[in-house]
Structure formats: structure tokens, C-alpha cells
Amino acid sequence: MARLNGFLFPRTATGRASLLPAPPWHYSGDLLTIEYRTDPMAVAELLPDPLELPHADEDPGAVALVFADWQSCSDSFEEIVDPVRLQYKEAFFVVRCRYRGKLWSRCIYIWVDKDFALARGQLQGYPKKLGSIHLYRPVPVGKAGPRLEPGGLFGATLAASDRRLADARFTITGSSDTAGFVNDLPMLHHRWAPRIECDGTDSIAEIVTMRGVDVELGPAFRGRAELELFDSPLEELGRVAPREMIAGYWQSVGTTFVGGTTLEA
């Protein structure tokens, strides 16, 4: 029998065809974060046992929608000269929850535009789906983009299955000490996989956590945020629609994923 190699499927004799290289995975990107408040009960209905809603004084209805323009690569850095394997964009909604007496960040919805990012996220416990994500990039010269200074106007869009899901706008008003508070905690995920018998049970049902190492943060900017979410027969974003806007943020981020931790299985 052949010995197959590769971090993920497909596994082959050489492992070269695997959709993902083995970690560590290095990330560099620009993040536009839109924070708002929704109905806390809409957050609660997305938290399976034993997760709980944050306490009343912990802003339980706070949500962050993050648009990210990433470059990522393995430790071989081969992807840097093959940009199709390096670049992708994503948009994801984050809330917070309580587990074992601690406060965590948790991704409830996420879309990406590349298959390797989809598979990587599902391995980590992110509920990734394919989508189309676009966001303005800051420019240091010319007029075809915003500057990272007061008055800089950014736009971002999310679509999936030929349907627009979100329109966002962000106008910089000044510098900031942070890029928001909803997505600044270790992430808590569920890794689920139904049994092949399709009998309503799971072959994988784990609670896991992760946080990047070697984190580098660029200057953060804060400003006014606008957000509109749209109906779709395939999505449920109307249930977490904004009731009150908080703020928008822009920041460049670098980090490395080396693995997570299984908390419960």
C-alpha cells in the first residue's frame, strides 16, 4: 500500500497536490472593522451550549463586521512568487460569548473568495462559505483611493450566490489606540462534522480556541461607520441587523497561526 503525504486532502505520494501546506501560516493584511449593536437575543440564538451570552455590562449585543484583504503564506514562502496562492479577501461577523467563566470572541458568519482559505478556516472551526468581497485600498499617491488621514473615505461590499449581502462605508476622523473591542479576544470555535451515516450525530464535535503569535499591528484609525445588510434566501443577516452604530476602524495586521487548542470534545 502507498504511503500518502499532505497536510490536507488530496493526499498523494508527494503531497504536492494537498490543498493546504502544513502550518505555520503567516498572514499580512488590511482590516476594515465596522462595530455596531444588535438585539442581544439574536446573538444568544447563535451560541450553542455550553456557551452563554456576555453579561449585561459586557455589551452582549455588540457585533463586528470585518472586511479583510489578506496575503498569506507557508513557512516555505513559495506563495510569494505565485500570488494566486497568496492573496484572498474575506468578510466575517464576530460577537462575544462566555465559556468557562471567561469572555471570548466568536465568529458567527464568514465568507472568503479562495478555496484554500475556505478549507483552512473550516479546519480551524470558522464557518466559512464562498463569497465575493471588495474593499477600498488606501493609496499614498494619486486620487484613485483614500488616504489614511482624517476625511479618508472607504467602502466595502459583500456578496454571495449572486446576491449583495452588505454595503459598508467608513470615514476616518482620527487616529485610535485600538481597532475596536469585539474582535480583540481569543477566538472560540466549534469544529463540527456530521457522521457519514447522516443520522443526526457528529463524528467531530469539538470546542477549540486559537490566537496568533508574532502579532504586528500598524497604526489604527477610527471614524464614522455606515452599514446596510440585505435579505437573501440563503442567509440570515437580517437577524443580526444593526440597531445602533458604534464606530469603524482601519488597521494593518500581521500574525502567524501555528495551531490551536482543543478545549472540549
Spans of 5+ residues with little confidence (pLDDT < 50)? none
User: What's the CATH class, please?
Assistant: Mainly Beta
Summarize model confidence as the mean pLDDT. 97
CATH architecture: Beta Barrel
Shape: globular
Number of DSSP-assigned strands:
14
Give the arrangement of secondary structure elements.
Elements: E1 25-37, H1 40-44, E2 62-74, E3 87-99, E4 102-112, H2 115-124, E5 128-130, E6 132-135, E7 153-160, E8 163-176, E9 187-194, E10 202-210, E11 213-217, E12 220-229, E13 244-257, E14 261-264
Parallel strand pairs: 4-5
Antiparallel strand pairs: 1-2, 1-13, 2-3, 3-4, 6-7, 7-8, 8-12, 9-10, 10-14, 11-13, 12-13
Question: What would you note in describing this structure?
Answer:
- This protein has 265 residues and is mainly beta.
- It has one domain (25-186, 218-252): Acetoacetate decarboxylase-like (Beta Barrel).
- The protein has 2 helices and 14 strands, in the order E-H-E-E-E-H-E-E-E-E-E-E-E-E-E-E.
- The protein has helices at residues 40-44, 115-124; strands spanning 25-37, 62-74, 87-99, 102-112, 128-130, 132-135, 153-160, 163-176, 187-194, 202-210, 213-217, 220-229, 244-257, 261-264.
- The strands form 2 sheets. Strands 1, 2, 3, 4, 5, 6, 7, 8, 11, 12 and 13 form an 11-stranded mixed beta sheet that branches. It has a 3-stranded antiparallel beta sheet with strand order 9-10-14, covered by helices on one side.
- A hairpin with a 2-residue loop joins strand 3 and strand 4 (102-112).
- It is globular, with a radius of gyration of 19 Å.
- The protein starts with 24 loop residues before the first strand and ends with a strand.
- The model has no long low-confidence stretch (mean pLDDT 97).
